[in-house]
Amino acid sequence: MTTLSWIRGVNGTLGRLAPEHVAGKMRRAFMTPRNLPPRPWELPLLARAERITLRFGLSALRWGNGPTVLMMHGWEGRPTQFAALIEALVDAGHTVVSLEGPAHGRSPGQQANVVLFARALLEAAAELPPLRAVIGHSMGGASVMLALQWGLRTEAAVSIAAPAQLIGVLRGFAQRLGLPARARAAFIRQIEHDVGMQIARLDVSGYQLELPGLVVHAADDQLVPVGEAQLIHKAWFDSRLMLLEEGGHQRVLADPRLSEAVLDLLARTQEPTRQSA
After folding, report:
1. Smallest Cα–Cα separation from 135: which of 35, 68, 38?
2. Which of 17, 40, 63, 270 is the most interior residue, by most CB within 10 Å?
3. Where would one find coiled-coil regions in this protein (predicted)?
């Protein structure tokens, strides 16, 4: 019997007898990230980074000199996972600030969720120069779109391998771990209590996305279905949808076509005053 099969069996039994208790354990597991070390290919970029500490202790890495691009990684991610894109942006004359989300890296906190990530983006933007673009991967992409609803100011935004609605993420997690119906309902209620809002509101179909954007997803992503990108693109009027045939959930970040598309977006949305300077 595999570990997952054992967990599903225990949750299936106890979830019927003590749904709130089991839901609480799964909630803590869902919201408590592991701090995973960087891969060897991330180390050269990490060595060249300037580490900065923003207000309230939020940690970030910075490279380059020029208009500022802000980045947010995904769940259990790292700033340097954007290595190929960071290199391309710096070479094109940008400053890149890549955050360590709450409870990740050296940033404070024990738990993380998309709402905390969105607030971190707003906190960072308040301290940084005007943003040329904001880029997010996976949960970081979802947090970028949420932060835009709360007043995040930027000229353009990029969503990479992000979910369109969080309720599907929660239901998928609960189903994968074998939570029965009452425990699933309790799990979602407890998450809503922690984040301070109804999960149904975390859905791009109800968002106002008024700025130029890029939505990128790989067709073979096993964690976030490619259909989520199509939903985001449908809700985001002024967005380009780029679907890649392969790249999974993580390798898509290293695809040179992603860097090319981001640079193209920045070139197309360049302010007239900057163009004529």
Report:
1. 68
2. 63
3. none
